[in-house]
């Protein structure tokens, strides 16, 4: 986390576990799908768009086992649902930092090691699906306007609480 003093130098502050517990109370995301919202997201497909007919990525036995565990866990929590949609996308795993060594192995090293204790980040390959979507014409805000809105704030941060990044 980076704190910036407008009138002085910036300094870094590493969060210690439990230090701001009143702010970060959620230890684990709740089970089930999120509640319905006022605005739902819709995807408009290009004319003539067809579902992908490509084969799934090759995966090792270790990847298949890890994927099966991942899917069972998400189904049990109610975060995903079984679907009969013809639209599918591939998924693959990228190893995170090995808790034992503190190193991030590349995919080949991870597969050769056979280490099932290394946490994984699952990546969905939506390239084909994205190529079939009509992109909405929404203008992005000017960066200068965003900076103008930030005037007077003292703390800026970027935290991915769900993935621990």
* CATH architecture descriptor text: Roll
Order of helices and strands: EEHEHEHHE
Query: Which regions have little confidence, pLDDT < 50, spanning 5+ residues?
Result: 1-9
Count of β-strands: 5
Please report the distance between the alpha carbons of the first and last residues.
Answer: 12 Å
Strands in their spatial order, largest beta sheet: 2-1-5
Backbone CA Rg = 21 Å
CATH topology: HIV Type 1 Reverse Transcriptase, Chain A, domain 1
Name the beta content range: 5-15%
Structural class: alpha+beta
What does this structure look like?
The protein is an alpha+beta fold. The chain has one domain (2-27, 45-156): Roll (HIV Type 1 Reverse Transcriptase, Chain A, domain 1), CATH 3.10.10. 22% of the residues lie in helices and 12% in strands. The chain is built from 4 helices and 5 strands; from the N terminus they run E-E-H-E-H-E-H-H-E. The strands form 2 sheets. A 3-stranded antiparallel sheet has the order 2-1-5, with no helix packed on it. A hairpin with a 5-residue loop joins strand 1 (2-4) and strand 2. The protein is extended. Residues 1-9 have low confidence and may be disordered.
